[in-house]
Write a structure and sequence with these properties.
There is one protein chain. With about 375 residues, the protein is mainly α. The chain has a domain at about 20-220 and about 275-340. Helices cover about 80% and strands about 0% of the residues. It is built from 15 helices and no strands. It is found in: Membrane.
Length: about 375
């Protein structure tokens, strides 16, 4: 039995690392699609999220219907969760209109701070000194990102306001903190398929309503033409043959080739949707197999992908302060995550001891209900940080 357990553990770690890198790659892919659309002048963050929730609905809702089971959690809680999640995605995607891909991806780590505050007051979770030190180190690193953006405005587009984009990301992380804690609670009380299916369904409804109210004019104002792609795509990563073909499209107006480049623009929306589908699908597996420690460290890899995208594709220089900020945030996350595991073990031991101490021979019913309450409280306190 010990040999089997060791063999499973030996395979478990590489699998978790692989899934964690898939999550990081999906985050980086979604960031690239959003930033590229923003560079092309497409201002439609709600529409991007709409396609992502549509994919979740088409895949997971039929599974729920096939089960023929009633939702274990009331629908209005899923509606509230979807509303908060849609707003978080909107704010972060909107930030690409004003800030760089590297700043947006790294500032996502603000979620750590908001989850600490939320779980401290709402769930009664207590953190150690080292966890506070790790979170404080993250905040110091993120402050360096803000300083970097304040000192180096976007030279290629003077109309951009990096600090406004940074503020939108921080506001979006507040929404993500609420949605992440709620999602973790739902997963522990419920199953993963119902959570993702209902999140996709209600997210689809919320984003569709908000598109109809707020984003129709932005979609109508988008110039769906190959001239949008000329400024960014050809000099950066298209080969010379495609670039020459592109310029012939602009000069001759060939209808077939125009359609091809229109499809390219639409494919960015599809790429964003597929990336989020991967993220929402794989994340519960990583959290269940390894917890939030390895999950947070895996997401840090997406920031490295963002640096590579900005240097190799956009050919933009990065302020040296960003590299210092990245190192500081990485140290802070490592300190926080390592102490998070020991803190969680301590809370679990304390909860079990309290439950055993409260057992009375004369009150079986009250004892069982007390144990259930302790277990639910433990589940609530294990909210992950995304």
């Amino acid at each position: 039995m010990d040999a089997e357990t060791k063999a499973k553990d030996a395979w478990r770690l590489p699998l978790v690392l692989f899934l964690g890198q898939l999550v990081a790659f999906s985050m980086a892919s979604a960031s690239f699609a959003s930033s590229f659309l923003a560079n092309l002048g497409v201002n439609a963050p709600l529409t991007q999220s709409f396609f992502a929730y549509l994919l979740l609905t088409l895949i997971y809702v039929p599974i729920l219907l096939h089960r023929r089971q009633k939702p274990r959690i009331p629908w209005y809680w899923y509606l509230a969760l979807a509303f908060v999640d849609v707003q978080g995605n909107y704010l972060v995607v909107k930030a690409y209109q004003y800030s760089s891909i590297t700043s947006v991806t790294l500032l996502d780590c603000w979620t750590v701070v908001w989850v600490i505050i939320l779980t401290w007051y709402a769930l009664g979770t207590r953190y150690s000194f080292w966890q506070f030190l790790g979170a404080g180190t993250c905040v110091a690193g993120l402050g360096l990102v803000l300083l970097s953006d304040a000192k180096s405005p976007d030279e290629q587009d003077p109309g951009r306001i990096p600090l406004l984009g940074d503020a939108l990301v921080i506001a979006g992380t507040v929404c993500f903190a609420f949605s992440n804690v709620a999602e973790e609670y739902c997963v522990k009380k419920n199953d993963r398929v119902e959570l993702i299916g209902m999140l996709g369904l209600f997210g689809l409804l919320v984003s569709a309503i908000q598109i109809f109210i707020f984003e129709r004019k932005s979609l109508e104002a988008v110039a769906w033409s190959p001239t949008m792609v000329a400024k960014y795509s050809c000099p950066m990563w298209f080969n010379s043959f495609i670039c020459n073909t592109h310029y012939s499209i602009v000069s001759t107006g060939n209808s077939l080739q125009l359609y091809i480049f229109f499809t390219f623009q639409i494919s960015l929306f599809a790429g964003y949707a597929v990336a989020l589908l991967m993220f929402y699908t794989i994340t519960p597996f990583v959290l269940k197999m390894s917890g939030s420690t390895l999950f947070n460290l895996s997401l840090l890899t997406s920031d490295m992908w963002a640096v590579a995208i900005r240097l190799l594709i956009y050919r933009q220089q990065i302020n040296w302060l960003y590299y210092v900020a990245f190192a500081v945030v990485a140290i802070g996350l490592i300190v926080y995550s390592l102490n998070e595991s020991s803190s969680a073990d301590g809370r679990a031991t304390g909860t079990e001891a309290a439950a055993q101490y409260q057992q009375l021979p004369s009150d079986d019913n009250s004892t069982s209900s007390s144990n259930l309450d302790s277990k639910e409280k433990k589940q609530l306190e294990e909210a992950y940080i995304c």
